[in-house]
Amino acid sequence: MFSSLSLNHRRARSPRLVVGTAVIAAILFAGTLTGVSQASSRHPHLRTHHSVKPLMVTVFSPGSGDMSGTAGAGFIVDLAIDATNAGDNALLSSTNGYQPFFNDPTSSTFHPGVDPGAPGLVVLLSTTPNKPGTPLQGPDTNLAGLFQLNGVANVGGKAETWNTWQVGKALFGTGQSSLTVYVVAGAAPTVVSPETKPISNVVRVPFTIAP
Q1: Nearest to 203 by CA among 26, 89, 46, 14
Q2: Distance CA 51, CA 116 (A)
Q3: Which residues pair with 56 in a beta bridge?
């Protein structure tokens, strides 16, 4: 099923996909101001970064206000990371660990923490529980290591990654939740802290996990 989701197919079918340099630039500017201003009060440091960052995150799914999944699972988190300009392409290079990678849910690499295909990606859900003795340490837990699909591209001379997670288990409750996504330099931590500094815009999406 996953192999059929080529990058071109996802581009064609996604109503939220941004096409064109001018549109990307406009969304970058708006996302830098709006996304950061909406960052969770749990992470006040995320609200202090108003300058244009070297990387831009775009979240395609869930959308703001969406009712996603069923019985607490089955929803999709789908996003892209783009270099702001060609001079920042190295940040998304294979040298820095950004690579096509299928993270098999049966593999030892499939767990909260670093995404093996996008090491700097940080993905938080406000409804992540705290389960002592497990990698789930509450809403500050980085869930990027649960992303199954990771692809790379070059669009108009700028590096881009595509990253997708199909939530297979009902671990995050139902009802209102909030998704927060950004990128850090190097390998992202398993649990973020006030010292975790973004090198991208910060995107926050309020949505509902369907019961």
Answers
A1: 46
A2: 28
A3: 82
